Amino acid sequence: MKVFFFSIFFIGIFVNAQFTYPDPKISSPEEDIEEKDELINLIIGKQKIKEFHKKSLGAENETNIEVKKFDIQGNVLFASDITEMPPGKPTRKDEFQTVSEGGKIISFEQSSLDFPTNKTEIFYDVKNNISKITEKRKEGEYIYEKGRLIRVIEKNTGEKTISTYEYTPTGKVTRISSEYISSKEKPSTSFHTFAYDMKGNILSNLLKDEESIIEKKYSYTDNLLTKYTLTFNGNKAKDQQYDYDENRRIKKMIKALYNPDKNTSTSTSSLVFNYNYKNGLLAERSTLFDGKEPAYVETFSYDDQKRIVRVNTQSENKVVANVNISYGNKTITLTGDTYQAEYTLYE
């Protein structure tokens, strides 16, 4: 029961799943900032990744090989994660494979060393909306009205969850009401509500069930996110603040974590990120743990086309990591101390 509620709260994020389910996307501006801040996204900007290959060395002489293939919309078509172990230990392989027909994914399979292959089939209505998703002992039915998803019925061996969606006139989700019915437990309900400002920025994301209340709150200045807070049952669990320069680029980010059971300042840890720019480009990014030195300092180097070609990370004036970036014909290669990753981009 709790697992279902947790997955709904973080709509769009499914652990160990690569397929994009038809649930409406809920804005998470704090996640958008973190994604944009990742090195590969600093490098490629708005370009789309077609394929990704990475080989890295792990502990105890392990070698990890990761492969992903995407369509132009960013959906994962194939994913493979292989861990080659030292002699005498089994090689681990996790794989995700889709089957497409007429430009639509009609099924996918997931397999791993720990679990048998699981096949999921996807069915569409006459308007090409996903109408049903089935797998072993599970089924999801999706109902639409005027192009919007209004109801999801999920069935799983003696259990059923019915979720109803409500929207603003502009199409933003304002409420998700879910009813859980089980042959072994008493029925229960949850309510997930969302509020927005006049510009469409999300202000609150609140999930309430019969056991807990989880809420995200957001504040903005000049349409830029300046504060994000996460609470559990009214107790603060996370607090993040953002400052920007005159060019609307992030200048400083502070992340504080709390113990939501105690909610005291003595139960916190924090990260402080500072950003410095030169000639319009990110030149340096530093990270302080609990606001204390020594900081980790990343220095960015560029070529004459203003592309990142090297990232040097130091702490206490010692180099702790290097990443070199090279560019080919629609390919970008990142070479670190223990890994090499190649990205192929769409035209």
TrEMBL record:
It comes from the Bacteria. This is YD repeat-containing protein.
